[in-house]
Write a structure and sequence with these properties.
The complex is a heterodimer of chains A (about 475) and B (about 500).
Chain A: H1 8-22, H2 28-53, E1 57-62, E2 68-72, H3 75-98, H4 105-124, H5 128-146, H6 152-183, H7 202-219, H8 228-231, H9 237-247, H10 249-264, H11 266-272, H12 274-294, H13 299-319, H14 323-354, H15 365-368, H16 370-384, H17 390-404, H18 408-434, H19 449-467, H20 470-483
Antiparallel strand pairs in A: 1-2
Helix pairs in contact in A: 1-2, 1-4, 2-3, 2-4, 3-4, 3-9, 3-14, 3-19, 4-5, 5-6, 5-9, 6-7, 7-10, 9-14, 10-13, 12-13, 12-18, 13-14, 13-18, 14-16, 14-17, 14-19, 14-20, 16-18, 16-19, 17-18, 17-19
Chain B: H1 6-20, H2 27-55, E1 58-61, E2 72-75, H3 77-104, H4 109-128, H5 132-151, H6 156-187, H7 192-202, H8 207-224, H9 233-240, H10 243-269, H11 271-274, H12 279-300, H13 304-325, H14 328-359, H15 370-373, H16 375-389, H17 395-409, H18 416-438, H19 441-444, H20 456-474, H21 476-485
Antiparallel strand pairs in B: 1-2
Helix pairs in contact in B: 1-2, 1-4, 2-3, 2-4, 3-4, 3-10, 3-14, 3-20, 4-5, 4-10, 5-6, 5-10, 6-7, 6-8, 6-9, 7-10, 8-10, 9-10, 9-13, 10-13, 10-14, 12-13, 12-18, 13-14, 13-18, 14-16, 14-17, 14-20, 14-21, 16-18, 16-20, 17-18, 17-20
The chains are: A mainly alpha (about 475), B mainly alpha (about 500).
């Protein structure tokens, strides 16, 4: 068997989603079984290929030096692909129930499976060009998901999403062109393509880095380019959850990791001071995201701003350019994915069963939906970083990384922001459990099992990641060792 | 070798068959005749391209008269490829119009096909000829034929558009003629190769004459190929014709003139002479202005065909941009863009033509939700639009990428901004069309799925065009390398 088998987990979802669009299913159950088997099968394909083949690469077609669709499985790619596939399974089961009240389920599942293929392609893209191709496709394939409801508001938000994304992608294109004209090589290589080339034009290099960073930063919701993300909350909850957890914003972060460590390399970045200017933007992102989250009355919007600030942590870990910080950043990428998708699932479950969207409305809901709200509370503690939950581990490494780079300021910002995280998430938990009328009708009203089960399992994962972080941590350490 | 006469054969073949068309009373016969002759021409063009690929360029003496006295055709690989693109796009457009032309006009059907054959024949003449005066004759023939096609629907707005087109075109040809007169008076030759050899010797003595000639050619052919401030005739002329005619006018006619301009600038004068004057910078600036303003004007339009017509102005801007960069890569990409845009724009016009034909609407606001009614056609349109916006692997992206590399090579970094701004602007008017026709609750209300779809057999030519668009994008390296090898 040749290496082309590694293309299966990327292209099988494309094929399957086309089939899904064409087949007319007799009942919803049959369609759901079909979707579930696609996604689980794809997960198994992925596992099998990683297990059997390890790190391999394949040139899908190579027209010339730059027009080269090249895929490579490496450790960072495996991490991202596994994260995406795992969360996709949870989201699929959650959506089977949730999407019944949104309608147009078939269209949803077609684009849902298609996006899975694109996300895995992004994970395994072996050079910047391939990455860019699938990055653009990601925008196009998630667009129908964002405007799913088709209302005027949804279309407006979708337009905003497209304009921001394509604006960012255009910057990326500009950066790519300039980069290609210098290096003639855009392959992702640990420590970067510049390691053997002596660069005297450091100003040009710095501007290329800034252009690429801001271009990808648009997707990673970097302040001041973040405003598409809260608007995109008009999407159905499973979509928002995925956009936040892996599919879109993390693709932006992943891109920045790739560009920083696999195109430029930490040495080159240090020489050109690429991290210095960027870190101001990031500090701004962390603080502003938290502060804006405080004011949101809509539950999903509050979670959205929380994402903005949490992404700031990850980016901070990336640009500090030392090993501990990078470990913290990547670990937080994983942890935040699980926590945020869990928080969104809970918010969605509340909306699904009671139709309530704002924080004022959900007072006392902890008595009606105890399981959901307990899971929400656990996720909240994790995100704030109370030990032993998983958020604590990643923040610990981030703080250690900040100290390694002799910068106490970062540590202070981390602490302030942790406090702010508590300030915007804890009131929700308090409102749910301790407020509201005493004589409220206390019949339990949990969401259906196919929604509740993903929530419980995700909570279990969040707790386990906090208690036993070593497996993931060792894996991430092995990535970080090779690239810093 | 008989193959050496193939280029001339296509031109003469198309002309002769067109003149036999009035002899038949039934329109059906001229329709089929036109389709058959055009398909034969494409096959012949394909054979000549293959022949040139293996045996090198063809110099063909018409009537066995040697060069300075007789007319000479010069067909290298670039001319061969362009000829192939012209004939095959025309064949597909005519194939498409065989099913649909009667629905948009009732009379003069036979006359339409006659004009198309003359037009394609003369365009091939412009591309192939190595003789300036001969080129002028073909320009005039093509102008008359093109004006005839614009006016063929015989409605008020068509006559207005045709008059506008005719007046500006004749102005353009007049300038070209004056240019030829000037150049003949200082070199005594009409054959491009001979003029070039003469000019190399004497251009030092006639600097102002050379400058005037250059400006005359640039402006004259610039009017005809819709260089930015001279584009005013284009939207009217292109948006009022039948779909297949719009595809040919926009995809091919503009390209023939711009290709002639490239030949005159780089083969007749040569880079050595033109780089003494700021002419290329002027072309670069006008090209950039066209890229931006064409898109800005397109955003303001309410009629879908006018949107696409203005988009042509922007895309011609790219070609002038490539010429204006004045380096090898830029020029090669200008020619690649001629090919890519010929295919993409005709795809867009044909798909929009079928939308208008099926729904009867041409306003952007009325076309909402049409993606549910005609998903196949709209998907084709979407692919064309993606190419214009610059989604990777499609030809539009390839052009933009290499144009950008060429501007870096030429040291004109600031012009990168123009390319990026223009692709963002493209997205700004193509995406809303696509989005509103596929998505949106209000837009889709009351629309029945596939209700207005065209029969698949009528869509085959458009599907073939779409396939060609993909192929041009995927095999860009081979095409660009072939072009670069054969540059003047």
């Amino acid at each position: 068997m040749s290496n082309t088998v590694m293309l299966i987990p990327m292209f099988f979802p494309f094929l399957a989603s086309t089939l899904l669009g064409m087949i007319k299913f007799a009942t919803k159950e049959k369609r759901n079984i079909f979707v579930a088997s696609i996604i689980i099968a794809n997960f198994l394909f992925l596992l099998l290929i990683i297990y059997l083949k390890g790190t391999i690469d394949v040139h899908l077609f190579m027209v010339n030096n730059f027009l080269d669709l090249y895929f490579k499985i490496d450790k960072l790619g495996i991490l991202f692909a596994m994260l995406a596939s795992t969360l996709w399974i949870f989201t699929a089961f959650y959506s089977f129930s949730y999407m019944t009240h949104e309608g147009k389920e078939k269209r949803f599942f077609v684009f849902f499976t298609f996006t899975l293929g694109i996300t895995i392609s992004i994970a395994f893209a072996g050079n910047l060009f391939t990455f860019y191709v699938f990055y653009e496709l990601l925008t196009l394939s998630t667009f129908p998901l964002v405007i799913h409801s088709g209302t005027r508001e949804a279309l407006e938000s979708g337009k905003k999403y497209l304009i921001y994304s394509f604006g960012g992608a255009t910057l990326v294109l500009l950066g790519m062109i300039l980069l290609f004209s210098i290096s003639q090589d855009m392959t992702f290589i640990p420590n970067g393509v510049f390691r053997n080339i002596f660069i005297d034009n450091s100003k040009l290099l710095l501007s290329i880095y800034m252009i690429l960073f801001i271009g990808f930063g648009v997707k990673a919701a970097l302040v001041p380019f973040h405003s598409w993300l809260p608007s995109a909350m008009v999407a159905p909850t499973p979509v928002s959850a995925l956009l936040h957890a892996v599919a879109v914003v993390k693709a932006g972060v992943f891109a920045i990791i790739r560009v920083s460590y696999y195109i430029f390399g930490s040495k080159t970045l240090e020489n050109i001071n690429g991290n210095l200017y960027i870190s101001f933007l990031i500090i701004f992102t962390i603080l502003l995201g938290s502060l804006l989250a405080l004011h949101q009355e809509n539950l999903k919007k509050r979670l959205a701003y929380s994402t903005v600030s949490q992404l700031g942590y990850i980016l901070l870990g990336v640009v500090l350019l030392n090993e501990n910080a990078l470990i913290g950043g990547i670990l937080h990428l994983v942890n935040h994915a699980f926590i945020k998708i869990l928080l969104f699932f809970c918010a969605g479950a509340i909306y699904f069963t009671t139709g309530k969207k704002t924080i004022g409305e959900i007072k006392g809901i902890g008595k009606k939906m105890p399981i959901t709200m307990w899971c929400f509370a656990i996720a909240t503690f994790s995100l704030i970083g109370i030990p032993p939950a998983n958020g604590f581990v990643s923040k610990w490494y981030l703080a250690a990384g900040g100290l390694n780079s002799n910068n106490v300021l970062f540590v202070i910002i981390l602490l302030v922001s942790a406090f702010l995280t508590a300030a915007y998430l804890l009131p929700i938990v308090i409102a749910a459990f301790f407020q509201g009328d005493k004589d409220i009708n206390n019949t339990e009203n949990e969401p259906p099992l196919s929604m509740l089960l993903p929530i419980i399992l995700l909570t279990a994962i969040v707790v386990l990641l906090g208690l036993f972080p070593n497996h993931v941590l060792n894996y991430i350490e092995s990535i970080a060792k090779t690239i810093v | 070798m008989i193959i050496k006469s193939f280029p001339l054969l296509t031109i003469i073949f198309l002309f002769i068959t067109s003149f036999t068309m009035p002899l038949f009373k039934k329109d059906v016969i001229s329709k089929r005749l036109s389709f058959i002759t055009l398909s034969i021409s494409s096959v012949i063009s394909l054979i000549s391209v293959i022949y040139i690929k293996f045996n090198g360029e063809i110099y063909y003496r018409v009537g066995h008269w040697d060069a300075p006295w007789g007319i000479e055709l010069h067909v290298g690989i670039i001319e061969g490829i362009i000829g192939l693109v012209f004939t095959s796009v025309a064949t597909l457009a005519i194939w498409y119009s065989m099913f649909s032309l009667e629905r948009s006009m009732k009379e003069r059907i036979g006359f339409y096909y006659l004009l198309i054959n003359i037009l394609i024949g003369s365009l091939l003449g412009i591309v192939y000829t190595n003789d300036l005066f001969n080129a002028f004759v073909f320009i005039e023939v093509s102008t008359i034929a093109a004006c005839g096609i614009v006016v063929i629907k015989n409605k008020k707005e068509n006559i207005k558009a045709a008059l506008k087109y005719l007046i500006l075109s004749i102005l353009g040809s007049g300038l070209v003629l004056m240019g030829i007169a000037f150049i003949y008076s200082i070199t005594g030759n009409l054959n491009m190769t001979f003029i070039h050899n003469e000019l190399i010797k004497i251009h030092g003595q006639y600097q102002s004459t050379v400058l005037i000639t250059l400006v005359l050619f640039t402006i004259g052919l610039g009017v005809k190929s819709a260089m930015f401030p001279l584009h005013t005739w284009l939207p009217d002329a292109h948006s009022n014709s039948p779909a297949s005619a719009s595809a040919i006018l926009s995809g091919l006619v503009l390209k023939a003139y711009v290709f002639l301009l490239i030949k005159i600038l780089f083969r007749v004068f040569g880079l050595e002479i033109i780089s003494q004057y700021p002419l290329l910078d002027l072309i670069l600036i006008l090209g950039s202005a066209g890229m931006i303003m064409g898109s800005v004007l397109a955003i303001l339009q309410r009629n879908i065909k006018r949107v696409i017509a203005y988009s042509s102005v922007a895309q011609m801007g790219y070609i002038f941009y490539g010429i204006g960069l004045g380096n090898e890569l830029g020029l090669a990409m200008a020619i690649y863009h001629i090919i890519g845009h010929a295919l993409t724009k005709s795809t867009l016009f044909l798909s929009v033509g079928s939308i208008i034909e099926q729904t009867g609407n041409h306003k952007l606001t009325d076309l909402r939700g049409v993606g549910k009614e005609m998903p196949v056609t709209l998907s084709i349109f979407t692919i064309g639009a993606f190419s214009m916006v610059g989604i990777p692997i499609l030809p539009g992206f390839i052009s933009k990428w290499y144009f950008a590399l060429a501007s870096i090579e030429a040291g004109k970094l600031l012009y990168l901004g123009v390319i990026l701004a223009s692709s963002l602007l493209n997205a700004l008017y193509y995406f809303p069309i696509v989005i509103n026709s596929f998505f949106g609750e209000e837009n889709l209300k009351g629309r029945v799925y596939m209700s207005k779809n065209k029969p698949l057999k009528e869509l085959v030519p458009v599907l073939v065009l779409t396939l060609l668009v993909f192929l041009i994008g995927i095999f860009n390296k081979g095409i660009i390398d072939a072009i670069r090898l054969d540059l003047f």
